[in-house]
Amino acid sequence: MAVPAVVVKRAYKYYGKQDKPGYKPVLQYLDMTVEKGIIYGLLGASGCGKTTLLSCIVGRRKLDSGEVWVLGGKPGEKGSGVPGPRVGYMPQDIALVGEFTVRDAVYYFGRIYAMKAQKLTEQFDFLTNLLDLPSGGRLIKSLSGGQQRRVSLAAALVHDPELLILDEPTVGLDPVLRERIWEYLAGLARGGTTVIITTHYIDETKQAHKIGLLRDGQLLDEDSPNEILRKYDCDTLEDAFFKMALRQHEISHRRRSTLTTSPDVIPESSIVNDSRYQSREDFNVVTSSTDILTSQEKEHKKNMSKGRYKAVLIKCIQQFSRHPGGLIFAVFFPIIQVVAFFLAVGHDPIDLHLAVVNDEAAFSSIGLDICKYGNMTTVTQREDETCEQYMLSCWFLEEMEKRKLYSTIYKSVEEAKYAVTKRQLYGALRFPRNFSDALAVRVAEGHAPDSVVDDSTVSVWLDMSDHQISNFVKMQIHKAYESFARRSMRACGKNEELVQIPVRFEEPVYGKMDSEIVAYMAPGVMVTIIYFLAAIVTSTLMISDRLEGVWERSAVAGVRPQEMLHVHILLQSSVILVQTFEMMLIAFVGYQLPSRGSLWACGLLLFLQGLGGMCYGFLLSVLCSSYTISFFIATGSFYPMILLCGILWPLEGMPNYLRMFSLGLPFTLPSKSLRDLMEKGSSITNPDVYSGFLITVAWIIGTLTLCFIRLKYRKT
Ligand SMILES: Nc1ncnc2c1ncn2[C@@H]1O[C@H](COP(=O)(O)OP(=O)(O)OP(=O)(O)O)[C@@H](O)[C@H]1O
């Protein structure tokens, strides 16, 4: 009895969820046997389940029921041929990194299989001739579809595997090249290699030793081409397949009219079933090779693992270094973002104009121009020690101007307010006609009638729709009043403090008297930038590898998920380290932010935040099937995290329940920790500081755990 290389028994495979519409089997009651050393041609129309069947054979998808045996074991189990070097797999998609050159693509798989450099070079040269490959230095993404397909085939053939699984390798190739490929495969089969090949070209399969016709997920028949012609009494395979399809149609029609229970269960009698392998015991002949395989694998295990690490590391470096957008994103974006923040945020607004109605000046002897003559404002002390003041409104306006609040003169309050409504100005001010006199009385008397209070009061109408600017204008007018009052009291020989509010702000415990909002926001901004960049880079790289099929193909070649993860973590950590260094340099050296605490602790916290972002990126990549969904989730989750973390608005202003929630988010406590390290010089042993480290580590562990759970229970 011929030894089987691949056996599929009573295979059922569904996509999607049972309770959803359109849930139907893609493979149903499928039996298939591929003997060693043959070419097995799997034929079928588009969508009949060929790719699904192959992906179950290579272990990338799991059957819902039934069994698959490959080279003596179940795919994924110890001792089976897959994943690993015993199989060469060419998926239907190109599944090569676009940034690879032709040579890189073939060498990548050669390295995974730990091929010696010289052998790899020889094989590459041989395959270049055989498959007429484009020049070795050309990038995959610059090749035509047919050229990419040939490189993909070369990558599957490079290591002379025992079993070749080729999903439509000849599509779109010219007939001479197709013929050459079939001849080569026939030669391999004569040497003992088993080949499973799917194709749409029926005439090609005449060269196969055995063909199987798949239709609607069922294998209608499998046999040698001659035997099929004989069995169905036809001259051509097309006719034979037509008869088979008709027969399947009749059977399913009969079944529909007689079966009332489970419509998916096909009566065994109606299915061609010539498989000789009915139970696990029948596979003894197959499984006998397992032990030999295991000892061989043990011998090479270490070398193989090294080879895989090397291959994946080189792949990632090539991918990264040949992707200018990625490089810019990873290295320059943090600089651009941090510098943009420092340039744009926290500086005082300038060029603010206010509408001023100065009735005091308007009714003077020379009218509104009086403030232009500095010597017209006078303050003199009378003999009774009271003060005589004239045109103090001009001094007030001068103090405002020193604070970059400029006046545009209007005649009436209505006109001034109208100008504000036209958004030409940020507010309107009015000085009453008797401003200086009333002010002198107000200060001298201590008690004064309402009319004096009114006459000595500057009225202000602000455009409060712009919160930041109106608050800034308010603060500047208060400060202008403080200096104005000091100046006029000084001129009058009085104690300046008398007219200040009776509250004195002494030297602050932490920070500076005129602390800028930049110093408050910067820690949070740095934390969010490093987290966000790492999450986006990681999820994008991971999803692109998966969508391009590179991940799947590498996994079939034997690369383990943890090996890919280790390499990614290694590279991404180096990038995060560079980003951390860049940010600290800009913040502490470039913009002189306070660095009272340990710089090492600041760096460590930023680095850990980067790792947290990377883990979040892993989670996004395993949860999302496309870039779009990943971007939606990323932006959808980042905004709330930033809004709630306290850098835009203090937590103290939030409702209690929201405050509790915010404290658990990845940016809130770490931002505060970093601020305390920088501004207060707190030590890492301080609970306010180490809580930021703890929450960062908790998020790393939490997101990684979710990734593993998702990967473990994902339906494949
Ligand atoms: N991930 C998936 N989720 C849901 N349905 C899927 C998925 N992959 C394939 N299918 C469906 O399963 C059926 C079989 O698809 P499959 O790719 O195996 O067919 P195929 O014979 O290889 O087709 P082709 O020759 O066009 O590549 C199709 O109806 C397809 O729409």
Automatic annotation (TrEMBL):
<protein>
    <submittedName>
        <fullName>ABC transporter G family member 23-like</fullName>
    </submittedName>
</protein>
<feature type="transmembrane region" description="Helical">
    <location>
        <begin position="631"/>
        <end position="651"/>
    </location>
</feature>
<feature type="domain" description="ABC transporter">
    <location>
        <begin position="6"/>
        <end position="241"/>
    </location>
</feature>
<feature type="transmembrane region" description="Helical">
    <location>
        <begin position="597"/>
        <end position="619"/>
    </location>
</feature>
<keyword id="KW-1133">Transmembrane helix</keyword>
<keyword id="KW-0067">ATP-binding</keyword>
<dbReference type="InterPro" id="IPR017871">
    <property type="entry name" value="ABC_transporter-like_CS"/>
</dbReference>
<feature type="transmembrane region" description="Helical">
    <location>
        <begin position="325"/>
        <end position="345"/>
    </location>
</feature>
<dbReference type="GO" id="GO:0005524">
    <property type="term" value="F:ATP binding"/>
</dbReference>
<keyword id="KW-0812">Transmembrane</keyword>
<dbReference type="InterPro" id="IPR013525">
    <property type="entry name" value="ABC2_TM"/>
</dbReference>
<dbReference type="InterPro" id="IPR027417">
    <property type="entry name" value="P-loop_NTPase"/>
</dbReference>
<dbReference type="InterPro" id="IPR003593">
    <property type="entry name" value="AAA+_ATPase"/>
</dbReference>
<dbReference type="Pfam" id="PF00005">
    <property type="entry name" value="ABC_tran"/>
</dbReference>
<feature type="transmembrane region" description="Helical">
    <location>
        <begin position="689"/>
        <end position="711"/>
    </location>
</feature>
<dbReference type="GO" id="GO:0140359">
    <property type="term" value="F:ABC-type transporter activity"/>
</dbReference>
<feature type="transmembrane region" description="Helical">
    <location>
        <begin position="569"/>
        <end position="591"/>
    </location>
</feature>
<dbReference type="GO" id="GO:0016020">
    <property type="term" value="C:membrane"/>
</dbReference>
<dbReference type="Pfam" id="PF12698">
    <property type="entry name" value="ABC2_membrane_3"/>
</dbReference>
<keyword id="KW-0472">Membrane</keyword>
<dbReference type="InterPro" id="IPR003439">
    <property type="entry name" value="ABC_transporter-like_ATP-bd"/>
</dbReference>
<dbReference type="GO" id="GO:0016887">
    <property type="term" value="F:ATP hydrolysis activity"/>
</dbReference>
<feature type="transmembrane region" description="Helical">
    <location>
        <begin position="517"/>
        <end position="543"/>
    </location>
</feature>
<keyword id="KW-0547">Nucleotide-binding</keyword>
